[in-house]
Each structure stands twice: as C-alpha cells, then as structure tokens.
Amino acid sequence: MFRPSFLQELLAAGLASEKVVDGLQLMFGARHLDIASHLAHTLETPTLKARLAQIYAASIGKETVALDRAVVQADALACITLDAARRLNCLPLQLTGRTLVVAMARPEDVSAVDEVRRAVSTGLPVQAQTSAQTVDTVQAVFAFAQDIENGIEIQYTGRAGLAALARQISLELGRPARDASATASTAGVQGQAAAVSGAGELVRGLLLYSLKHRASDLHIQPMANALALRFRIDGLLQTRLTLDKDLLAPLLSHLKLIAQLDFAEKRRPQDGRVSLLQKGRSHDFRLSIVPSVFGEKAVIRVVGSSDQRVTPLDELGFSHANHALLTQLIQRPHGVLLVTGPTGSGKTTTLYAALARLQRPEVNIVTVEDPVELRIDGVTQIQTHAAIGLDFAQVLRAVLRQDPEVLLIGEIRDLETARIATQAALTGHLVMATLHTNSALQAVTRLVEIGVAPFLVAPSVIGVLAQRLVRRICPHCKERYEPDAEVLEALFHNRGDAPVHFCRGRGCARCHGSGYAGRIGIHEVFVLTDAIRDLISRQQSLVEIQRAALQDGFRSMRHDGLLKVLQGLTTLEEVDKATAW
Predict the structure, then answer these.
(1) C-alpha closest to that of 437 among 365, 348, 504, 347
(2) In this predicted structure, what is the pLDDT of residue 473?
(3) Which residue of 141, 173, 186, 514 lies most exposed, with the fewest beta carbons within 10 A?
(4) Measured distance CA(218)–CA(237) in Å, rounded
(5) Pairing relationship of beta strands 430-435 and 461-473 according to DSSP bridges
(6) Integer Cα distance of 240 and 219 in angstroms
(7) Within a 10 A sphere around the Cβ of 341, how many other Cβ atoms?
(8) Are 478 and 568 in contact (CB under 8 A)?
(9) Positive or negative CA dihedral for 11, 15, 20, 23?
(10) Helical ranges in 305-439 per DSSP H
C-alpha cells in the first residue's frame, strides 16, 4: 500500500506499527488530520502526542504549539470573543504588534483563517491598540481540536465571570417568593437547589482559574463577614476574589460531594481527592477541609493532569556544576539519595525527573508515595493508606521482595522507614527519598537524630540535594540596574572596580504588577566523601561536617541563588527570603 510521507514519518518515529498505519489509512483514506487525531487518543504519554503533533504540523508546513505549556496573553484573548472562539474552535495565544497568533486544528485552511480574521474584535484593549485598531495578520499554528476546546475553557475563565456567577448564586440563596402563592419556605428550598447547582459551576470555574494561572493551591477561607478565595501563584498567596459568606455552605457541599466526603461532618478535618474532567484528559486535585472559628476552610492543591509530562532534569534550572553532581549520584548502583526542602519546594518534581532519566525497560523502578502525584507509565507506583495500616514501612518491606533496582520513597517520616531505606541501600538498591531539613548538610545528622545508627548512615547515604523555589523575573518588564555599593560590599569580597548589574521587574499587566512570572529552583548538592563518612561514624558535629564539605568544594544554596541573580533570572530579595535561616 502506498504511504504518503506523513504516514512514513509516523512509522519512522515509532508512533504506530505498520499494521496500525495500514488500518488507519483504510479507515480515513487521505484525511491525515483524522488519522493524527485518532492516533493521538491511543498514545500513552504527552511526549509521544507532542511528537505526533510536530510530524503532522510539518506535513502541512505549519508550526505546532503545546497548549498545556503555552503562555497565553490577555491581550490576545481580548481580540476574539468566547463565542467566536468556540464557534471557530480557535484559541488566540499571542498578540505582537498587529499579528495575532492563533491555535487552530486546520491552520492550512485559508478560508478558516480568514474567518478567524473577520472574527477579531475591532475594539482592542488600550495596551494592544494600533493606529487602525485592527489586527492585520493572523498567524495560525497547529493544535489538536480537543486540546483547543480544553484550552478555551481554561483560558477564558476570568475573575469577572466568576464574580458574576457568585453574585447570581447569592441572589438565589436569598430570593423572596416569586408569587403570592409561594410560601417563604418553598422559595427558600428553590433558592437552595439553584444555589447548589450554581455551586458546581462555580467550583469548576475556580479549578479552571487555578489551572489558567498555574496556581499550586486554592484557599477557600471564611472570614467574619466574607469569603476570601486565595490562590498561591508563584509561591505567593494572592486574594483574587472576595465573595459573600453565605456561599461557603454550597461550595463546601459540592466539594464534599465530588470528593466523596461526609456531608454532615463539620467538626473534624477531612481529606479527599477531586478530579476535573475535560475532553480526553482529567486534572487531579487534593482537598483538605478543616474546621475554623469562622467555618470550615478548604484548601485545594493542584496535583497534575492525566496527560502531564515529567519535566526533564535539564529544564529544572540546575547550574552546570549541580546538574553534573546530581547526574553522577543518580547513576550510582546503590545508596541513599535524599532530597530536602519545605512543602512546595519542588522535591517531587526533581525526583520524578531523576526517575525519568533512569527509566529503561531493563530497570525495575518502584515508588512508595502519599499520594501518587503523577502517574508514570512503566514505573510501579504504590500509594500508602494509613487508615488500613498500609504505611511506608509496611509497603517498603513488601516492595523489597519485588526485585527493584531503584526505589523512591515519598517521605522518610519515622525511624522504621529510615532504617529500611538505609538497609535497602546497603543491599544493592538505589534509594531516593525526601526528608524535611533546612539544608543538605543537616540531612545526615537528622537521620542520626531520628534514631538510625551512624554506622548505617555513613556507608548508605551517597548524597543530599536541598532546594527552594524562587520567583523568576518577568521577561516582559525586566530591567537592569546597578545595586548600591553597600549591597555589593556585603555580597562580594575584593570585587574590584568592575560594574555589577542586577535585574528586576518593573511590573506590567502580564505579571499583574508583581515583576515576577514563574519560578526557578536554587540548589545545593552535598556529596559524601570518605572523610565525611568518617566524621559521621564518629558522630562529629554539624560544624565539623560543614568544614570538611567546604574543603571538598561544597557550594551552598545561597551561592547558587546569587549566581542566578547575576544571570538576571531572579532577584536578591527572593534569594534572601529563600535562604534566610
């Protein structure tokens, strides 16, 4: 059977077998977009789907875009209304001068692109206005239709729409009887039913808003006379909406419903899991509800999506030196590698990246987590369940009988788990685990403090990575400046007369005036040498261990942060906040 170049590329990339390609060609003929869309549903990982999109886009002479990682400008969204975007199945991404970049499923269709151009609003926002207040050029890039639909739902969710919906629910809760024959109680029941229905729509909108702004957490916080909705964006809590206090009950009722929690329980904390379903994908969230003096407070943490990819190690912001050290550590055949840092510092992301680097068909990788935050195909992932006695220690004992080469422990919380981890390393396994300490050097002494014998810690631990996340400077409003002499004198010794420049963000609409957009990691990697193992075995102080580490070339997290300040990636204020202990 004759195969066009597009199908040949699919075979060459290993995205489909010859049998599958022949079947798709018989089913869809020359409709290559239908073939690509059908095949996209069967691919197991986001990386393969992205490769498929690249191959199809190249076959039609267009660029492609990964909508889950694309930065969508508010100016671009303002150019096309929500109704038009849905009707035309297009998502505006960037507005540069008079050129609008739009994601479309058929970017090569000239008539479809012309239709998008006609749909562009003439009343652009002030910051996007041109002399003619028009967009002259529409540049179409490829994305699958399903991804565009999901992107439209996320990107067009805004504060104004959520606030309007909240006001409508409040009106339903307090509405009077609609006619003389309706009693007050009947009206109240009708209002409650409408409010519960609207609460589901509002919860969905809040979750979509969290995804749009890449928030890590959403706090639904009751106060004395209001309900604050606070989003943790780039590590900083921001109150984006303040609603009527009477919305708390319907919101929590709906959250408890979809998380399968106890409606009647309001005196004790409850934990659950929430999923937001879109076409072909689902987004997972962790829900925590605790009682407070003003009512129950809910915190929703964004966990990940069904098509989320593991971020490669090369994209996590490691310096060349730290990247080389970490790569050497994860390639060791056995030993314990600890990753330390506070909650939300990116430890799990780093560990998953390390697993992805090690993943091969001949390597048996097992993880024990609470909870499993991102599902990785080809890796055995086990979630603990304390309610039935399935804790870390019990699972680890069973896992060691499963012949693993690499073992990931979500967190070392107690002596038994720590002891099993060190013994597993001594019997030929590579163990990676998280531990809560302020610095890398404190991790080895913490294990001893937990109760692990120094003669087990010294030979088993091969290294420790400590990390924090700091905010990146917004690239759209970044400016250089020369810091005060006093600041430079405090940071650098014998710097000479060479000028030193730092960078900062002025604040713009794209970063909501903060001067920051996104986050980057700062790290320190502590590799245990024979001299340091001897100090640990003899239970020497942390000061002695630190002195030996510095002699071996150890560089602190603050040192790494200052390098990123000099590179213009973050600010001195962010590094000071992250390393002030």
Answers:
(1) 347
(2) 96
(3) 186
(4) 9
(5) unpaired
(6) 11
(7) 25
(8) yes
(9) negative
(10) 320-330, 347-358, 392-399, 415-426
Q: Do strands 297-305 and 406-409 pair parallel, antiparallel, or not at all (unpaired)?
A: unpaired
**Distance separating alpha carbons of residues 257 and 498, to the nearest angstrom:** 63
What are the structure tokens assigned to 482, written together? 């020369």
Instruction: State which residues of the chain have pLDDT below 50.
Output: 1, 122-132, 177-181
User: DSSP letters of 544-563?
Assistant: HHHHHHHHTT---HHHHHHH
Contact call for residues 149 and 156 (beta carbons, < 8 A): no
The neighbour count for residue 81, using CB atoms within 10 Å, is: 14
Note the pLDDT of residue 186: 53
417: left (phi over 0), alpha (psi -120 to 50) or beta: alpha
Amino acid at 123: G
Amino acid, res. 210: S
Which among 417, 418, 464, 457 is positioned nearest to 540, based on CA atoms?
457
301-340 b/e (C-beta count within 10 Å ≥ 16 → b): bbbbbebbbbbebeebbbbeebbebbeebbeeebbbbbbb
Place of tokens 């562009």: 120
- Is the CA virtual torsion 67, 72, 76, 80 positive or negative? positive
Q: Residues 6 or more apart from 299 whose CB is under 8 A from it?
A: 217, 218, 219, 220, 287, 288
Query: Which two structure tokens, joined as six digits, stand for 59?
Result: 């076959």
Q: Give the pLDDT score at 316.
A: 92
pLDDT of res. 126: 46
Query: What does the mean pLDDT of the chain come to?
Result: 88
- Residue 474 near residue 514 (C-beta atoms within 8 A): yes
**CB of 100 closer than 8 Å to CB of 135:** yes
- Is the model's pTM score more than 0.70? yes
pLDDT given for residue 581 in this prediction: 61
Q: Check: CB of residue 270 under 8 Å from CB of residue 296.
A: no
Instruction: Answer whether 216's CB lies under 8 Å from 238's CB.
Output: no
What is the predicted pLDDT for the residue at 176?
A: 55
**Residue 144 to residue 40: CA distance in whole angstroms:** 9
H-helix or E-strand containing 178? none
Tell me the two tokens of residue 392: 């870390």
Q: Give the pLDDT confidence of 360-389 residue by residue, as tens digits.
A: 989 999 999 887 877 787 899 998 887 787
What local confidence, expressed as pLDDT, does residue 134 receive?
Answer: 66
CB atoms within 10 A of CB 410: 23
